[in-house]
Each structure stands twice: as C-alpha cells, then as structure tokens.
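Ticket #4471: complex job returned nothing on first submit. Input attached below:
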Amino acid sequence: MRVEFLGIPRERAGIAELELDANTLGELLTTLERRFPALGDVVVAGCLRSSFVANLNGDRFVTDPKTRLSSRDCVLILSADAGG
Amino acid sequence: MPSPPFGYHGCYLRIDVSNGSVARVPIADAVLRQFLGGSGLGAWLLIEESQSRPDALAPEAPLIFVFSPLVGSPLTTSAKFAVISKSPLTDRINDSLASSGFAIAGKRCGCDAIVILGRAASLSTLVIDDGRVRIEAVEDLRGASCPATEAAVKARLGTDYQVAAIGPAGERAVRYATISHDGRHAGRGGSGAVLGSKNLKAVAVRGTQRGEWAQPRALADYSKALSKRSFGPATAKYRELGTAANLLTFNRLGVLPTRNFQSGTFEEAPAISPEEIRQTRSRTRASCVACTIGCEHIYSLGAVLDEDKGVRLEYESLFALGSLCGVGDAGAVLRAVRLCDDLGVDTISAGGTIAFAMECVERGWLDQPWLTFGSGDAVLRAIELIGGREGVGDLLAEGSRRAAAVIGHNSIQFAPQVKGLEIPGYEPRALQTMALGFAVGARGADHNRSGAYEVDFSEKVDRRNVTVDAVRYAIETEDKAALMDSLIVCKFLRGVFEDFYSEAAEMLSLVTGWDATGDELRETARRIVHMKRQFNLQSGWTPEEDTLPDRFLDQALPNDPAATLSREQLGTLVTEYHRQRGW
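Support reply: We reran it on our side without changes. The output follows.
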C-alpha cells in the first residue's frame, strides 16, 4: 500500500511517500516507527499520538491500531489539528 | 468602590471622542463572573452600550476593546484582546481578537475594557495614558499604512506606548478593514472601518496599574508547567511550519477552496506551499508577547529578509489570495498578503470578494477584463483599488454580498459568504460539520468561532454525509471557542489540554480566587454564545440567515461527487442546532 506523509509527519520522515505492506494500522505504524526513528513524536508503541491521525484513501479518518488495511489502500499520516 | 476580583479592575472606560469626555464605569462582580472578558464581556458591553441600535458606522455605535482576567499573568498566550462592535460588513455582532503588548498596556490603564463612542473633529489618535485620556490630531498620517502609523505614533508619544492602528482601508470605510497592532490584526468583520468612522487613526495606551493574582505562587507553578507542555507535539505544526501547513493537507483531501469554491483541489498548490516557499526564501519565526508557541512564520519578499521585515504567512491568507483566486505564484501571494497588511484589509474577505469578482468577469457580468483567475498582478491591483476605494475597488470594498446585489444576475448564489462574512478556507460540501458551523455562526462564516472542522477531521463523523449526530459536536466546538475567546487563551493551545474546561477553571481560580469549576465554565460558554445571538436578534436576525449560498447546496463539489450537501440536509442540521440551543 502507499503511505503518504503530510505536514509534521513529512518533516519527521523526511520523505513524502513510500510503499509498505501491513495488515493493520498498528502493523503499519510499528514498521514506520522502526524505519523512521524521527517519527517518535508522531507514533509511539504502534499507535498515533493524539495530535496525529491517519486517513484511508482520502475518505475515512482512523486511529484504531486494529483497523484492517488492504494492499490497495492509501494511508495518509497527518496532524489532527487542522486549525488555521 | 468595593475591591474588584483579582485579575480585574472592575470597571471600563467610556470615552466619547466627539468631546473628549471620559467616564469610569463600574462592572459588577457578577457580570465579570458570568462573561469573564474578551468576547464574552464584550458581547455584554455591546448590548449595554447599543441601546439605540445604531448603524455600524454611526458615531453613536460603540467600538469596544476588551481585555481579560488572564492578561498580564504568566500564563502562556494570555496577552490577547478582543475588539467588539456591530460589523459594517454583516450588520451583526463582530468580535475580533488580536494579540500582544496592547493587551497588557491597555489593561494597565486600570480598566477591563475601553468603550469608544462619537466622532473626533479631525483624524486623531486616542491617547490613554494610565487612564487619562486625550485626543491628538494626526492629519499628517492620513493615508499611512498600518505599520507606518504605529511607528509614527510611537515615535511621537514614546516607545512605552502600545498602538493599535488602521491603514488607508479603515479611513475609507472598507467594510472589512482591520485594526492592526504589532503586525497582527483584529482582522475580520470590519472593526477598522468602525475605528475610522470615529475619525481615529490609532489608539495608544500605556499604564502602570498591574493586576494582582489570587494565588501568585501556584499560578507561577501552573504557568511554568503549561509552558512546558506547549513545547510538545500538539503544537509542533504551528512552531515548525505554521498554519500554512494546512495547504497541502487540504489539497490532498480535496477540501482546499479553489477559484471561488469551484473546486476543492488546486493543481498549483505545491508551488505556494510553505514547504516550497521556504526553499527559495529566508524565513524567521516570531511570537506574540507572552507566548511560548511561536506560530508566526515570516518570509522574505525577496531572497533574504531585509529591513522590510517580511510577510507573516498564515493558511487563511495563503488560501484566500492563492488558491481561491487561482494564483500559483508564491511571490505574488506574499506581496498580496503584505499589501493587505499594510492597507489594513482582512485577507479572507479581500480574497473572497476578489475571487467572486473574477468569476463574475468570467461569466461576462462584470466588465473588468484584467480581473482573471490565476493572475497575481490582478489580485495586487484589485487590493490596491479596494484600499483606495478607486474604480471597481469601491464596489469590492463593500464585500461580496453587497457587490452581488449591484452586479445582479443572481450572482449572490456564488458570493462566498454567510451573513455577509466571506467564508474561510474550508470547503463546506466536503466538511459538512464545518458547513453547519459556518451557517449558524453569530458573526457569519468563521473558523475561529466554530472549530467544527476538527470533528470532520476525526472518526466521529462521515465528513461528506453528516447526520444530526454531528450537531452536538459542532455546538461543543463553538462553546469551547467562546470560552477560549473570553478567558482569553490562544486556540493553538487547545491540543495541549486534556480536559480543557477543568484546566480553564483551574487557571481562572488561580487568577481570580473564584471557586470556578469546569461545569460552571460550560454554562458560561453557552451564556456567551446566547449573548452574541441576543445582540443579533436586536439587530434583526432571522433563522433564514443561518444557511449557506446556493453554490454549496444540492450540487456536488466538482472534484468530489460524494461531497454533496442538500438544502434539506443543511436545514435539518440547522433546525436541530437551534433546538439543542433552545432557540
């Protein structure tokens, strides 16, 4: 699946997107945490910190690590606070 | 006079600039506890002082600067003030907030608010020196920009004065003119035009009357801990990228208003994103006085920051003068933002009105062939004309609702406004809880009085198809904003609080000595929302105003067919909102 970083998560990861395999959001976040240690203030112990959120395919916002993912999903990782 | 509560002076100054008279009017403790300060106390004062229900720009219409119990305390982000009046743009209540030293210096004049009435004989500065009032003619500053005015007044009076000023737009009654202080603006709804209608170019304050706190040691400890938390992940976005970071996120989600809300995506968004701009321009950060977040990102107009001090770039300015007008030239957007700041013009209403005019030109309803989507030069020219009320600028200075009435062709259906206030950078069809927040807002479509977009960016709702379940969430965000705007603390702190109402009660108790509780403050927030509505009712509000323009109803967002909000659906949400409010 494709993972896209936006805002602070992109700053921390240092890239805009990558391809990964994972069955659940928790698995995905654990992999990201391992590959990008600088994501430590975005992801902790396989969960998103409360200031961040994931979005599936531009549609649904999710935070539950048990959320099932498919290989066709595009997962966006972004700041939860959209205030301007 | 009995001692006021800690954190307050227990009175306000009522100043009539027609004759220079000043009265120190007591405020009952019960009123302070019920309405706190900022927007809440301002709404109460506006009703008290508007018994004749005047036109927004009439001499007898009050313009009110309001401080808060927390101003001057060591609490981070507390150096804020509210400006309250009837809006010349909406003819409804307008409460705009700004920050920094003016709040502290104004409160040290020994008052909790300053009510300004009348009209000075000539263009003047209202000088309040420790509570003593005088009016000084400043005819030579006619036409001066906001920063030039502030600098000139400080040069004359002394650098220990803090100055709030208008630019040429406020002098010329542009209906969305701002009041500027220290590069920031009480931006929305035209408070600058109201100050200009009083023939005041600036208000200068200094004072020595420091407040006292009920529990100074505990307050210092709490403040230190809060400041430490404000350095954490919840505010990283504001510190590192600023609010402009929304641009690419919103574009990716298809909710970035583009070409007068004709699309939710802008193909040139990357070119005007902060991620791109910082690659070619130097940047620095700044904070309001007494703030530990430092959300302001100031970009150079050229390759390096020079003596012109650059441009404060916020998401709302970036969207309004960028994607909304179809402009993908970062340099043009930065110059447009700077021009608005200099003239004293609200960037959101300027961008919204210009984008509306561009669509009218495109349809052949407005004969200004130069005013086309995508032209940065056109945006700059339009802003200049608006600031000077010259040519078509005289029409656009009226805002999109009034301009639509003149242009005709039923163009009101796509004038991007609610109650006359131009819509901020959140696409209502794809963010439908926010659509409700916009529709019912007391001052019109506003992202600072309703944070309902937070709900749309969560698991709580399906943002493209919200149901009445969303109404309570929209009310929660509106109540929370009302309390934050009355205490006052910055909304960028909101992610720092685990239980905002309990912490707000703790802050208020440490400052005032009251035994405030979270439940009490929930009631206070609701009371403040009701008070704003009360003013609107007196000004002629009807339930039919709580809606969106036709463009957003019964038609899908072109880039997102699933994003459709029916008139019936919005009507159901608004009716349920009114029911839950008890209206």
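The CA atoms of residues 7 and 84 of chain A lie 13 Å apart. Closing as resolved unless it happens again.
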